[in-house]
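hey so u asked for the seq, here:
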Amino acid sequence: MNNQINNQINQQINQNMNQNNRQTSPQNRGKVMSKQVKNDPKYTENWLPLKAINNGIMYNNRNEMITGVKIQPRNIFILDQSSMDNALIGLMNFYNTIDYEFWLIVADRPVDIAVYNAELQVLYNKTQDQRIRKMIAQDLNKGEFFINNNVVDTEYFILFKEKNAELMQKKLRSMINNLASAGLIASQTTNDDLRMIIDNFLNGGQKYEAGGVMPI
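ran it, structure tokens below
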């Protein structure tokens, strides 16, 4: 009886081993690897569930709109005490009005002063006054320093997601108005802003190329 049971167990083990060997044979292993490669794209942005970026809004595949505001930096700590207190109270009141999920993003944008430098060069060539030429040359040298040392501008954003277009616009207006009450200038994000944020966090600062972000 025991021999019969042992034989059955051995037969079952051999059967399972044969089945596993078939599944992991070179031919089948190739099929499995191909499937894994297909679902494991090379570029990070291929994982982003975005359909499009239009009118300062990112559209994802869950029918959500991601947008927000860009805030112009302001050093409130150089103000007098009363003005600084009012700005901080305004920011606190603004924060308390937000009753939905949001993201505060601080991103570095590379400084692009190529056009500015080109205009300076034209002005330098036209100017005959040596004193003015010396000042322009100093600015040109400073511009070259910025370009060669990857100097960046720090930009500030508040983003949120919303499915209802009317509510989205209402939130945008509320953000801009409440930040203005705190002495800060804000405007809705642009397509370029949103692409820069994607580049900043996912592509190591590499320029976003249209069509590079694909829905999953």
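The beta strands are 50-54, 57-60, 65-71, 103-110, 152-162, 186-188. Residues 2-202 form one domain.
lmk if thats what u needed
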